[in-house]
Each structure stands twice: as structure tokens, then as C-alpha cells.
Design goal:
This protein folds into two domains: 146 residues, HAD superfamily/HAD-like (Rossmann fold), CATH 3.40.50; 68 residues, Orthogonal Bundle (DNA polymerase, domain 1), CATH 1.10.150. The chain has ten helices and eight strands. α3 crosses α4. α9 links the parallel β7 and β8. With 226 residues, the protein is α/β, with parallel strands linked by helices. Keywords: Hydrolase.
Length: 226
């Protein structure tokens, strides 16, 4: 039985028009590179953002210098903050209702993300979600030692919600690395959702237990049938 659901933010629970990956691309290419949006989303989706930058840059066959990655990451954060100031951020259809339904049935709901805490808190504040009221927790890449696909964020979410076994945890995200994270944490269910950065084919390659087209479809899988 699933007792904890860990959900990615951008592309999974929040519709922000892939602004983060558009901004990753803008920052990298402003430094003199020429990567496509498809390349950025294939290599960087779901990852801690400095790691995403590093992995996108490595597509050219070169190991990027730490100093260049740090400079691009700093530029990325400035660009993203500016984008979020004017962006019309919306929840994915039915997200709040799904959270409420799951929590009413005793399933804990925790959001996790490759963003740092400041960015994640800014994003969920724009939606209006409050920890303890709408969700049970928020875990970010800056809260743990290792980002995805390491299981650290899910393990922290389990600690915060007193869930002992990964078999009682479900993880959903819009990228293959979300699915890998769930597998590495020993989650009983790993789900890909087609509303975000990566295609059904890319999600399928990661071997999730399920692929869904909406959070409502996910909810029907998690809650036991009566």
C-alpha cells in the first residue's frame, strides 16, 4: 500500500511552460555554445541545475571546466529569477484536488525538485501551496548531499513523514531521471507523466512501473479500489 507520494515540481505538478530548460539553454548558449532545446531537455531534465548544465555541455564530447559551469549557473539563476517574476505559473490540471484526495485517504504528499530551496519556495508560493496545508513537505536539491538520480531526496521525504519502507512510496516525474531516482530509493511504484520535459518514449526507456498522462490518472493507480 502506498503511504507516501513524492512528486516532481516543474512539468509534473506545475505548468511553467518548460521555462527552466529554456533558461538553461539560454544561459549555456549565451556563453558561446549552440545546443538545441531538445538536447537540453534530453540531457538535463530533472537534474540539479548545475549538474544539468554540466551534462548538457558534455554532449559536445568535452569535459566542461568547473569555473565555466559555475559562471553559467550563476547566470542561469539570474535569468530564471527574472523569468519567474513575470511568468504566469499554473498548477498542472487538477493537482490541488489530487493532493487533497490523497491526503484525505492517508497518503502523504511531498514535492521534490532539482531546484534549490529558494527557487522552489518561490515557485510554490506563486501557486499558493502551503506546506502543512496543501502538501506535507518540500524537499529540494539543496537540502541533500546528492541530487538525482541518487535517492537522497526521497529518503529525506521518508524521514520527514515517518515512512520506513520504500515499498510504501510512489515517485512520479516528467523525466527519466525521476524514474531512476525512484528506483534507486526502492520505491514500490515509479511513474512517468507525459505533461513535461520528456516524451513517452524517453520515459519508457527508464522502465517505470506506469506511464500516465495526468495526475488524476496517477491518483487512480495509487488509491486502492473500493
Amino acid at each position: 500500500m502506498i503511504e507516501l507520494l513524492v512528486l516532481d515540481i516543474a512539468g509534473t505538478t506545475v505548468d511553467e511552460d518548460n521555462v527552466v530548460y529554456k533558461t538553461v539553454r539560454a544561459a549555456i548558449n549565451a556563453a558561446g555554445h549552440q545546443f538545441s532545446q531538445q538536447q537540453v531537455q534530453a540531457a538535463g531534465a530533472g537534474k540539479e541545475k548545475s549538474q544539468a548544465i554540466r551534462d548538457v555541455m558534455a554532449l559536445g564530447g568535452n569535459v566542461p571546466a568547473d569555473e565555466e559551469v559555475a559562471t553559467i549557473f550563476a547566470d542561469f539563476k539570474l535569468r530564471l529569477a527574472a523569468a519567474y517574476e513575470s511568468l504566469d505559473v499554473r498548477e498542472q490540471p487538477g493537482a490541488s484536488e489530487v493532493f487533497a484526495k490523497l491526503r484525505q485517504q492517508g497518503v502523504k504528499v511531498v514535492l521534490n525538485t532539482g531546484y534549490d530551496r529558494a527557487t522552489a519556495e518561490q515557485l510554490i508560493a506563486k501557486i499558493g501551496w502551503v506546506v502543512g496545508q496543501d502538501i506535507d513537505g518540500l524537499v529540494t536539491a539543496s537540502d541533500v548531499g546528492n541530487g538525482r538520480p541518487a535517492p537522497d531526496m526521497i529518503h529525506l521525504a521518508m524521514q520527514q513523514t515517518s515512512i520506513a519502507s520504500g515499498e510504501n512510496v510512489a515517485k512520479i516525474g516528467d523525466s527519466a531521471i525521476d524514474i531512476e531516482e525512484g528506483k534507486n530509493a526502492g520505491c514500490g511504484m515509479t511513474l512517468g507523466v507525459t505533461t513535461g520535459a520528456q516524451t513517452r518514449e524517453q520515459l519508457t526507456a527508464a522502465g517505470p512501473t506506469h506511464i500516465v498522462d495526468s495526475l488524476a490518472e496517477m491518483c487512480d493507480l495509487i488509491l486502492p479500489t473500493e
